[in-house]
Amino acid sequence: MTNTAAREEILQRIRSAQVPAAVPVVRGYNQKGPGGVELFAERVADYRAIVHTVTNVPEALEALKGKRIVAPEGVPDEWLIDGVTWLREPLSIDELDQADGVLTGCAVAIADTGTIVLDGSEAQGRRALTLLPDYHLCVVRQDQIAASVPEALQLLEPTRPLTFISGPSATSDIELNRVEGVHGPRTLEVLIVI
């Protein structure tokens, strides 16, 4: 039997094989967990993020006065307090790199893991906005906190560019010493709005 004939025989066997009907797979993931503001705040702080629970965002932003902060499209006007130089898009890579920080919202936050998810929509901007400045201040509303990863994934649009943030950028690649700010902001500050 030639190689071609053997190949055809194998392909014919594959084509004629009985394929069972697709059976739906029931996934018993824990959709809801203890979750909530307290767990999210604890977990995101475990990653060395600075965490504040607030009721008034503009008041909490007073510490930004005198700084040059990037504010993506869709950031609520009431967040743009006086005394801050607000940088708006389009910005070059050099302009982003020279900013003191960036202020964003988020798509969802995950209590179980202390993770913030950005999807580039309103008040989040393009991915580079949160990777180049050395400081990222993210506002998370209480109603955006999902208990678990499966619950969060159900709330997200899978075709959007998703960025999962679990604390400031850090690596331990070099002799297992933690180095922050390698692949993104050295400082992550989170305002949880209740």
TrEMBL record:
<dbReference type="Pfam" id="PF02589">
    <property type="entry name" value="LUD_dom"/>
</dbReference>
<protein>
    <submittedName>
        <fullName>L-lactate dehydrogenase complex protein LldG</fullName>
    </submittedName>
</protein>
<dbReference type="InterPro" id="IPR003741">
    <property type="entry name" value="LUD_dom"/>
</dbReference>
<dbReference type="InterPro" id="IPR024185">
    <property type="entry name" value="FTHF_cligase-like_sf"/>
</dbReference>
<dbReference type="InterPro" id="IPR037171">
    <property type="entry name" value="NagB/RpiA_transferase-like"/>
</dbReference>
<feature type="domain" description="LUD">
    <location>
        <begin position="94"/>
        <end position="193"/>
    </location>
</feature>
